[in-house]
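Bench notes, bay 3.
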Amino acid sequence: MQRITSLAACRELGGLAACSPGVRAWKRGPTFSKQPAVRRQWAQGCVRPLSGEPGAQGRRMCRRRVAFAAQKHRLLSSQPGADGPPGSSDGHPAISVVGIPDPITWIRCKVTIFLIKMYFDVDVNSEDFHRGVKQALVHVSDLMSRGRYHRLVGIVSNEMIEYVEKTCRTLTNAQRQQLAVKMDDIIFMLPEDVSVVFDQHGRKLCFIVMRFWILSTHDGPDDPEGTKIFKVASREDGGPQKKIVTAVYEFHRELTRGASPDWMVTTVWHWLWKAAE
């Protein structure tokens, strides 16, 4: 069973080569083959609604974008910056896949995600959701790097804003600027924990913890979560050597009928915080 799960997880990592430039993925066995970068375009047509609103069952509607709290402008794939600016992947080092995530965690999250889609009609495994959480990472990390903590209100929980501001104060200006993540620097992401909580007031709350693998030029210690799965080739042009670091964000949304469909960031953690200690 563990081997079957590992192979299934490898398929997700194998698909990484199709959407991340410069990544080498498995073809067969330990042999690596470089895949061409493919930019995914929005599918035309209609899909089922993402939220469990009244009347959603049994009818179809045009695709809606995943909404994040206080998000006034949502990027489309045809707009600059939606999946990274054209040509921004130039200069990325070759990246090899050398490991897999924990298969037990992977299969547990897959089962929970399937149940959430079946019972609440919320697809957190969709391209919409994946694009939304990436944009949230890029937006939040950019505000942190510039010290604009007040602009996190409505996007990040108040408790986490206080924690972020307190933690960033311990960093130098250069270290804080390195927190900024570009869309093209996101190599891979996977859910680490997915849960639905029923509170004493009858509300249904969904929590999703996402781990992101990101290219960075920081000169601190290696991130063990990054080196366990990916290996970055050494640069030959004399530029700064890039490393794989990770970031963990938790997203929260209420699934109760009639509640806001917006997602809120309730946890923010970057490896660079630990590396800077």
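Next record in the batch:
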Amino acid sequence: MSSSNITPTFQGGDYVKFFGAGALAATLTHGAATPIDVVKTRIQVDDAMKGLNMVKAGRSIVAKEGASALLTGFGPTAVGYLVQGGGKFAGYEFFKKKFIDLTGSQEKATQRRTAIYLGASATAEFFADIALCPLEATRIRLVSQRGFATGLTSGFMRLAREEGLRGFYSGFVPLLFKQVPYAVGQFSVHEAAVEVIYRTMGPEKKAKLTQLQSTGVELSSGIVAGVAAAVLSHPADTLLSAINKGAGDPKQAVTSRMFSLAREFGPRRLLLAGLGPRILMTCGLVSGQFVIYAQCKALVGAPPGIEIHKEKSLA
């Protein structure tokens, strides 16, 4: 069988649909999670909030700065993840198809499915992060440095004026350390969870799933994937927040600065500070994204994702 026959052909319009569905899924979920992300970021970088849980930290922010402070960074969050989400989901579909074709057969693709999921998600995320990084840097600066700017446009322009390209991409390496594990956890664990669910119910029940039941599968597998994505990406998320605030020696290379901050923070702060809110936020984000992505694809008539699941248990 030639490699061109392994997977269905996706046209340019199909990738536009993938991009649109992913963009909508990401921007809606990340935008809605802005208050949680504000609290999480402040716990990570504000010494006055060390040791506070999510509720106490949120109350402290509202008491001192007003409820509107919980929406700080909403603009760059919504715009950044509109671009990043579209690129990530469309990129995953693209690279997954390419890597499946490279194996040369459906059987080999199924055997190597974990490597395909890992490679496709990591590659897609890398390119999506190039577009996300300037907006993420602006968001972090707005959240962690009060008074920096009044919103997306003013914050973006100030960062461009004062620090230029260096300021926008000073956190690119930590962003990769955060977002690539996040994407790997999101897509790989989601694929694995869906496979387990489908294998448990069998092909006959799978074929007769209602829309509500299919949504339940996406939601359940998304929650599991969300936990994995949160845990894998949390250490770098903490470092990214600190670096964009200006922590560490600015004379150091970004990677050296990141590891220096990791030693300074210590394992406990690096692994646990803000992890609870991040797991809560990420479970909602990931599960919501997969549900919205599936619904949007169905609405616009996008082709289904390519499956290389193992249908039967080895037992």
